[in-house]
Design a protein that fits this description.
- The complex is a heterodimer of chains A (184) and B (214).
- In chain A, 33% of the residues lie in helices and 20% in strands.
- By secondary structure, chain B is of the alpha/beta class.
- In chain B, strands 4-5-8-7-9-10 form a 6-stranded mixed sheet. In chain B, strands 1-2-11-6-3 form a 5-stranded mixed sheet.
- In chain B, strand 1 and strand 2 form a beta hairpin.
- Classes of the chains: A alpha/beta (184), B alpha/beta (214).
């Protein structure tokens, strides 16, 4: 299991503290932050992209990113085809399992077609359950994501954040994205 | 876009056709003879070559008047149709421009690497951009599998259902196939199709035919 440190609010100058603490996988929400941090620390850590993926930003992150967790549209796939990441990189398809209209992510019915169209290896799935104070409410979404990953032959499950990572791990998460609780 | 009962152009010279149940049973032997003859006429082929399918990983060439023991049938001679048959096993058409293959991709063949072998074979022949059309097969909605199937496909042991087309699509893209087209129909719940799981041992067989135009 991989603990991904979501470092959106951590300035590049403070990353060495996290490196010394033994963290080696970082998730960035903004393309320019990922590029800046990967340029400085890419030899010691791996940088994933976990933010809203704008197709026009794909070219910027392509040379530096390890996994993109938030691929959900054909246009993102086309952008990845035009600007393929380095070999060894992969993508996760973000699914919107709750059907919340304001939330990014593909519907589960779209998954086979997205896998078929992906120009880089699809290694797994990612989801964000609805915001909640009760981690147990996230469990059905994590369970469904695991079932879908298994059905589609995908190994990585990026699910669970500071609010619900324990439940996510119980349901088979292979990557948890921890932000706030690491730095408090 | 893959549709049943439609001639699908996969490249300038390669065509594929996925049959539906209403077009008849294409089984080996006398039971499927009428269905196969009708299909050959409808597609205007000089011959239609099938395989003795054994859930393995062997590839053979489609030669008129033969029926090789294989699960992947290569074809390069214009007008000769290569036929793969199935009930719940995934059927696929892989195309370059000067050669193509019809594939019978059950879980054993998929796990054994038949798809990758066919891709390699066409790549070795100098076929550049490959296109894979994935037709009917057992879908993620219905296809319950045991731990031995999950293990063979490299999936976690607790996997309960598998979508053969999605697994094949991911593998094909990783093996360098440029374009993957999906029908997206599950044989087990889509009654336009024959299904071993739904209909039992007497289920008929649908097919995929791949051929080159002259």
């Amino acid at each position: 299991m991989t603990v991904l440190a979501a470092t959106k609010y951590v300035p590049a100058d403070q990353l060495p503290v996290l490196l010394e603490a033994g963290l080696t996988v970082f998730g960035e929400n903004r393309a320019q932050d990922l590029v800046e941090k990967a340029k400085r620390f890419g030899d010691r850590a791996r940088f994933d992209f976990i933010g809203a993926l704008q197709s026009r930003r794909v070219a910027e992150i392509a040379p530096y990113v390890h996994l993109v967790h938030t691929v959900a549209t054909r246009s993102a796939l086309r952008a990845l085809e035009r600007h393929p990441p380095a070999s060894g990189a992969g993508i996760l398809i973000q699914l919107n399992l709750s059907g919340e209209p304001q939330k990014a992510g593909a519907a589960e019915e779209e998954l086979p077609a997205l896998i078929a169209a992906a120009p880089v290896p699809v290694v797994g799935l990612m989801t964000l359950p609805p915001q909640t104070a009760d981690p147990e409410r996230s469990r059905p979404y994590f369970r469904r994501l695991r079932e879908l990953a298994e059905q589609h032959g995908l190994a990585e499950l990026s699910m669970g954040t500071s609010q619900d990572y324990e439940v996510a791990v119980e349901e088979g998460a292979t990557i948890v994205r921890i932000g706030t609780s690491l730095y408090l | 876009m893959v549709e049943l009962s439609k001639v699908i152009p996969l490249s300038e010279r390669v065509r594929a056709y996925f049959t539906a149940k209403e077009e008849g049973n294409l089984r080996r032997g006398p039971q499927g003879a009428a269905g196969r003859a009708l299909l050959q006429r409808r597609l205007g082929l000089t011959s239609l070559v099938g395989m003795e399918q054994v859930h393995g990983t062997a590839l053979a060439w489609a030669k008129p008047q033969t029926e090789p023991q294989a699960d992947g049938l290569l074809v390069a001679e214009p007008g000769v149709g290569a036929l793969a048959r199935g009930a719940d096993c995934l059927l696929a058409a892989l195309a370059g421009n000067g050669a193509a293959a019809a594939l019978h991709l059950g879980w054993r063949s998929l796990a054994g690497g038949l798809l990758e072998r066919a891709i390699e074979a066409l790549q070795r022949m100098g076929e550049g951009e490959l296109v894979l059309a994935l037709g009917p097969g057992a879908g993620g909605c219905c296809y319950e599998v045991g731990p031995e199937v999950a293990a063979a496909l490299g999936l976690p042991a607790r996997t309960q259902r598998v979508d053969l087309a999605a697994v094949a699509a991911g593998r094909a893209r990783q093996a360098g196939v440029g374009r993957v087209l999906l029908l997206g129909a599950c044989t087990i719940c889509d009654e336009r199709l024959f299904s071993y799981r739904r209909e039992g041992a007497e289920a008929g067989r649908q097919g995929v035919v791949v051929w080159l135009t002259s």
